[in-house]
Write a structure and sequence with these properties.
Helix content of chain A: 40-55%
Strand content of chain B: under 5%
Number of helices of chain B: 2
Number of strands of chain B: 0
Low-confidence stretches of chain A: 67-71, 200-213
Oligomer: heterodimer
Shape of chain A: elongated
Distance between the termini of chain A: 35 Å
Largest interface: A-B, 24 and 25 residues
Largest sheet of chain B: none
Helix content of chain B: 55-70%
Mean pLDDT of chain B: 79
Largest sheet of chain A: 7 strands, mixed
Order of helices and strands of chain B: HH
Radius of gyration of chain A: 32 Å
Amino acid sequence: MLSLPGIHCAACISTVENALAKAPGVHEARVNLTLKRALVEAGPEVTAEDLVKVVEAVGYEAHELDPGVLATTAADRAAKDLLMRLAVAGFAMMNVMLLSVAVWSGAEGVTRDMMHWISAAIVLPAIVFTGKPFYINAWSALRHGRLNMDVPITLAIWLAVGTSLYETIHSGEHAYFDAAIALTFFLLAGRYLDYRTRASARSAAQELAAMEVPRALRLTGDGSPESVGVADLVVGDRVLVRPGGRVPVDGTVLEGTSEIDRALMTGESLPAFAGPGTAVSAGEVNLTGPLTVEVTAAGEDTALHRIADLVAIAESGRNNYTSLADKAAKLYAPGVHILSALAAIGWYLHTYDLRLSLNIAAAVLIITCPCALGLAVPAVTTAASGRLFRKGMLIKDGTAMERLAEVDTVVFDKTGTLTMGAPHPVGLEDLAEDAQGVALSLATVSSHPLAEALTGALRDLGRLPAPLTDLREVPGYGVEGRWNGQPVRLGRASWMGAEAPALTATFLQIGDQPPQAIPFTDTMRPGAAEAVAGLMASGLRVILISGDTKGAVDRFAAEIGIDEVMAEALPDQKAARVTDLAGEGAHVLMIGDGLNDTAALSAAHVSISPASALDAARVASDMVLLGNDLAPIADAFKTAVKARARIRENFTIATVYNIVAVPFAIAGLATPLVAALAMSSSSITVSLNALRLR
Amino acid sequence: MDVLVILIPVSLFLGAVGLGGFFWLLKRGQFDDPEGDANRILNGDYDDKPKR
């Protein structure tokens, strides 16, 4: 199974399917666009790695999905199960309602009894089958001595069915079969909506573990590399890390010089120099030259794994959040029981008629039916997430919307979140045209991100490469060559004896002239300024936390208009800062993209990551932006606040219905017709109110 | 009222057919990839080996 995050259209489907089908050994390949996955059936000789290459060759990003994803299929099955029960309940409800119309419009005697018997025959098996999720929940709550929303539901359903059956046997006037099955239907609908919004949420820690580099090149005694599993490495082993490869372990560099990209681990935008003695950690990317690394920590002791642990700890903390629905249930469940018990006792003392008082109790339970309450939250969440999805934002967690509405502090990461994470050279006009040509020729040699950015920018200016000889990349330092008989160099400040500036820059030296700096800025993500301004306009406190150097962060903060800044933050410091803020009573929204942000993302009250973020960060956050634009964030906050208002309104509507209808039920005036009307109209009002959000 | 003897079973039967149809669709996986199916119809490829 492959994950294909980039596919989005009909052409993508056929390109990927055709490419996979042509790969040797593949029997069948089918793309699922909804889940953005491809399911491949192939012979045992085909590895997932080969298939990933095949898909990448036709221009789509692909990842292998491991059996950990099986958990999602289980969730799919549960959703399907709910849908099936919903269908059965819908079928039973429609038929019973039709039969009930005859009774409501005045069928009497034998005809009424017959209608009741047929209803009973439909409802009894249907209700046993469809209500199963509620019964199981109610039973497990009771067993632990607690009350939840499902206890009054189960009681209402079975008391209604029981008394109706008794009435039917004794040719009674009122049977509540229709109410019982309608109650189940509306509640199942709420449950299903709830489930669908939650289905995409997965365990962050799991995918983070899958991110770890599975294989490494170990150097044997005679110096030749062999491929081994990372789990087999022990402290003291020497591993070879090729340029472009990810460092598999924590260790110290023994031989070779290169530059390493620590952006994922620390958020530093500028690649760092690595030479003998430099400490490297798992997850960093080696850029220019091969490195031999002595292992100091492997597997569970690596920095990457420690971040995964931080995420797991932070996640367990957040699970304590009680949603509005749960709060309502806590008030509601005991209240309903007491009310219906009181009504039954009152009527019994008044009339000494057990049958009548049980009927009243059932009517009270049905009228106070929580179906509007059951729909109140999921209907709003579904409508709001639909709206945000169209704006380019995916909600992964059912309660994320509620939590977003409570936010009063926003923490942004810099590199890759507010910026594109791609550097862009500035002040190129200060260089002589000759020098620009030289710089271009030098830059084309290297695959260093700064060099690539420089190449792109100079080409855009229409410069042609100057003829150079003896071009050579010096791993870890830069590129050198000869131009018109004099040596030229492009690279680090320290290489040419220049002073390293506070901002990201590379240096160009021609002959004996003093080296010239070419500064870079990180391009701001589209919509970043709007998002920050919008959030500030909504009265939120905005903080910028970055692992980048102080100078770079301060300059950027001034540019975008953020006052509170924290620079050079390590992953655990980020998480600690977020936890501190929470300790001060703030509800923090964390927006970040890197591996170094994952712990902070999980620790925050609610979190958002852009689509370009690392898988692990996307999984750790509650919402994912689908495009490059950050502007939807400010909008999402407003929508969330509105959604919370709608949820409150819905609770009010449901309560008002109950307050109006309960006296009828207690007075014994709640005929099945009144019950059906009250129930349907409250459910429909609540759903319509939710739809106003769209 | 005699007509009820026919009409009620008929309506129940028709409802049951609909329900059965829905189960069949669910089991055949027709709701697994609604977006993909919506896009597949725009696919320009000629199917050399249509399923018989």
